[in-house]
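Lab notebook, bench 4. The sequencing result for the construct came back, and we need a structural model before the next group meeting so we can plan mutations. Quick request posted to the team channel:

Model the 3D structure of this chain.
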Amino acid sequence: MDRDFLPVRIAILTVSDTRNASDDRSGDTLVERLGEAGHVLAAREMLRDDRAAIAETLRKWCADPEIDVVISTGGTGLTGRDVTVEAHRDVYEKEIDAFGTVFTIVSMNKIGTSAVQSRATGGVAMGTYLFALPGSPSACRDAWDEILERQLDYRHRPCNFVEILPRLDEHLRRK
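Done. Here's the predicted structure in token form:
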């Protein structure tokens, strides 16, 4: 049985102390890729490396019924200012452990052992998928082209994130 494509509504958050809207190449890369795939840009924002502000934005977007997926870029490294992963984990109800593993495998094929320096992560909160990607355009391309493009496509078999999207918050609807 063939399935029709189902566009999802994606918010893009760039986390950086050094970039602004005019030079946000990673955010631009993700916006371009999601548009080419047929998805909808639901929101876009830039924040400094501030754990509380990042978590607040993630929660706000998770509570918005017009947003299905949040992808952040930046702040996943090892320096003291890199707090995006911690902010994501402050919000997650469930972590998608294999996302980071698969991202590492993809990265190993591109950049070798330097892949160990990324802490890319994925999770679910309030019926919304959340993904934290490194701040480089190439890492965003790799994550989108090798993982997210397929998992956010309802037609992808044997399974994908979109087909279970309506059930992510089913525990909140139970009596």
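The longest strand covers residues 40-47.
Will bring this to the meeting.
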